[in-house]
């Protein structure tokens, strides 16, 4: 927790420096369609407004306002950054939690299926397919799902939070959430399944498993009671280190599906050099990854009392 403070400071400093070095035209992004109708003097005033402050001074002003909750005003949303974050962060967390949860739920039966015969044809085909899927970026998986399930079959909407003009409700949100959640989940299934399968193959040859089989315990119960729980411990330990990947994948998925989360704001802020919103969104996603890793470590210590907390 203490290391999070200097980490956040360094991340935010890097964001301001990299955004200032970006070749994007902040004034054009701010003006949008009005850019071609704006005169030279007016455009110069806009440039002074959105990009006239040195990046270090802008960073210091942003940091100075953090203790009072003043994170500045977003030039892309034309509203205070706090309001943008309050409206978008819950949707990002919903997508990440559901995507990771669905991925974990799908990985367990796949790992159990492969572990029944680790050297069999099913295990070989399954692991090969998962290795291939792990090499596909999350945004490619998302576009493939759109092409098949939305454009090809017409079963699901292509994006957004609701249908045009429809009120925000559980039915509308749930229907529009299916494809983004599947995209995030499919990016997580390969590594969860492969790590779990490898740990289960080790547990299959453990003394506890051999003793259970000698007592006549059915093979299905051996897998679910004597193999799966110990195998989940190293997988959970790796999950904390993989959370930044979940965050990065969710950001890309949000942009593809026009999901109203922080990821979409992050892309728009980067293109427009919206320093305040860009830094705030990046720092919040960094904190989510750090706290998620901490939660994974705490769960690991809770599940396995043999774990040394100082060694994590």
UniProtKB/TrEMBL annotation:
<feature type="signal peptide">
    <location>
        <begin position="1"/>
        <end position="19"/>
    </location>
</feature>
<dbReference type="InterPro" id="IPR035906">
    <property type="entry name" value="MetI-like_sf"/>
</dbReference>
<feature type="transmembrane region" description="Helical">
    <location>
        <begin position="275"/>
        <end position="296"/>
    </location>
</feature>
<keyword id="KW-0813">Transport</keyword>
<keyword id="KW-0732">Signal</keyword>
<feature type="domain" description="ABC transmembrane type-1">
    <location>
        <begin position="89"/>
        <end position="296"/>
    </location>
</feature>
<keyword id="KW-0812">Transmembrane</keyword>
<keyword id="KW-0472">Membrane</keyword>
<keyword id="KW-1133">Transmembrane helix</keyword>
<dbReference type="InterPro" id="IPR000515">
    <property type="entry name" value="MetI-like"/>
</dbReference>
<feature type="transmembrane region" description="Helical">
    <location>
        <begin position="125"/>
        <end position="156"/>
    </location>
</feature>
<protein>
    <submittedName>
        <fullName>ABC transporter permease</fullName>
    </submittedName>
</protein>
<comment type="similarity">
    <text>Belongs to the binding-protein-dependent transport system permease family.</text>
</comment>
<keyword id="KW-1003">Cell membrane</keyword>
<feature type="transmembrane region" description="Helical">
    <location>
        <begin position="176"/>
        <end position="197"/>
    </location>
</feature>
<feature type="transmembrane region" description="Helical">
    <location>
        <begin position="91"/>
        <end position="113"/>
    </location>
</feature>
<dbReference type="Pfam" id="PF00528">
    <property type="entry name" value="BPD_transp_1"/>
</dbReference>
């Amino acid at each position: 927790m203490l290391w999070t403070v200097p980490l956040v400071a360094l991340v935010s400093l890097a964001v301001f420096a990299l955004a200032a070095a970006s070749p994007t035209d902040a004034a054009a992004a701010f003006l949008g369609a009005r850019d071609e109708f704006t005169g030279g003097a007016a455009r110069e005033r806009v440039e002074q407004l959105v990009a006239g402050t040195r990046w270090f001074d802008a960073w210091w002003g942003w940091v100075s306002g953090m203790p009072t909750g003043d994170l500045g005003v977003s030039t892309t949303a034309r509203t205070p950054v706090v309001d943008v974050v309050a409206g978008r962060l819950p949707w990002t967390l919903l997508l990440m939690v559901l995507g990771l949860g669905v991925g974990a739920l799908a990985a367990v039966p796949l790992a159990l299926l492969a572990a029944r015969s680790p050297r069999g044809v099913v295990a070989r085909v399954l692991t090969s397919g998962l290795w291939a899927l792990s090499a596909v970026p999350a945004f490619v998986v998302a576009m493939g799902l759109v092409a098949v399930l939305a454009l090809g079959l017409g079963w699901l909407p292509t994006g957004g939070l609701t249908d045009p003009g429809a009120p925000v409700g559980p039915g509308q949100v749930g229907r529009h959430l299916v494809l983004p959640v599947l995209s995030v989940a499919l990016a997580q299934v390969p590594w969860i399944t492969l790590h779990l399968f490898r740990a289960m193959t080790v547990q299959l040859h453990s003394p506890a498993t051999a003793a259970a089989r000698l007592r006549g315990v059915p093979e299905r119960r051996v897998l679910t009671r004597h193999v799966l729980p110990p195998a989940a411990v190293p997988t959970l330990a790796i999950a904390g280190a993989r959370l930044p990947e979940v965050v990065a994948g969710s950001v890309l998925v949000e942009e593809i599906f026009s999901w109203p989360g922080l990821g979409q704001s992050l892309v728009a802020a980067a293109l427009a050099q919206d320093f305040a919103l860009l830094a705030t969104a990046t720092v919040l996603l960094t904190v989510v990854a750090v706290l998620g890793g901490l939660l994974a470590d705490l769960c690991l210590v809770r599940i396995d009392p043999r774990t040394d907390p100082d060694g994590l």
